[in-house]
Amino acid sequence: MKDGFGREINYLRLSLTDRCNFRCRYCMPPDGVIMLRHEDMLTLEELFAVVKLMAERMGFNKVRVTGGEPLIRKGAIEFMQWLGTIDAVDDLSLTTNAFHLEPHARVLHEAGFRRVNISLDTLRRDLFEEITRVDGLPQVLRGIRAAKEVGFDPIKLNAVAIRENLDEAVDLVDFGVQNGIQVRFIELMPVLGGSNGEFVSVDRVRQAIETRYKLLPIGEGGDPRGKNPSSAAEVFRIEGTEATCGFIPSITRPFCRACNRVRLRGDGHLKPCLASSQSFDLMPHIRPVFASDALEAFIRERIVSHKRQSRGAYEIDSMSMYGG
Ligand code: SAM
Ligand code: SF4
Predict the structure, then answer these.
(1) Taking a C-beta distance cutoff of 8 angstroms, is the pair 318, 27 a contact?
(2) What CATH number does domain 11-322 carry, 3.30.1490.20, 3.40.50.300, 3.40.630.30, 3.20.20.70?
(3) Tens of pLDDT, residues 214-249
(4) Cα 20 to middle of ligand 2, angstroms
(5) Is 71 in the pocket of ligand 2 (CB under 6 A)?
(6) Helix (H) or strand (E) segment spanning residue 292
């Protein structure tokens, strides 16, 4: 379907839970943010019914499961298997911190998940613990290896650019080159719930990488979005290798023109734009009765009428609620 700005919207990002086993310092404070109440969360059956409706009636053929940490929600794996049964969805993907990925990678791949984005800001165990507040790097690396072994393709590593990992940019790209994985550097968004560390622009990260590698835009005419105009990432081929790396300049070059996504929070709040304070509660159309027609009409109306916000103003409490 089209939104009020004429953009084709076909991509649903579904935050299964706002809870997480990590406490990444740019995402949430050490003792966590105020969590959504369990009784306010949609059940997995309800979430599945909403996704199915949006896919079958409204053309949402791309679905990404995210969080919080999606793999820690009870029943998450089974839920993702259900998603694999929706024929109208032809692109199923997952964003995870990969701490719990190793034992589930194969079953998720068999369920139809093909693409996975994994957060990894550093290859240094001490810095990893400092950022996430969990000594989890070895287990995350095992998760990445498992994803590769079972055939996830592409695997993308998301690194939030902060002052402390700037000197590791080349090492992270080397890791990507060696493992056939695209590393993407994301600009830190000033969400309300996190201590935001120190901002580094992705252009600065790119300069650091260019001391070692020549980067060539993937698209014709030097367009770094190539054949995917709605991609948030600017992507470059790393000369002399088969690998690519990407940059997401959410703050310095926010990219709204070809945005194709909406976000659904686990408690049924629909958010058409991350850079806007507007979100819309679907619950009255889901409980006490799942009213398919009313729900469809409501979602359509909100996607068409939502307002654009000033550029770069991210009004969300915590990234863990909406899944990035
Ligand atoms: N827990 C999963 C993970 O970390 O991949 C999925 C949810 S997490 C909120 C999704 C993405 O948001 C991650 O890649 C994370 O690095 C990114 N993120 C979190 N807080 C951010 C912030 N303040 N600015 C930019 N990206 C952020
Ligand atoms: Fe958890 Fe992901 Fe937020 Fe880190 S970025 S605290 S892993 S939800």
Answers:
(1) yes
(2) 3.20.20.70
(3) 999 998 777 888 778 778 899 999 999 999 999 999
(4) 6
(5) no
(6) helix 292-305
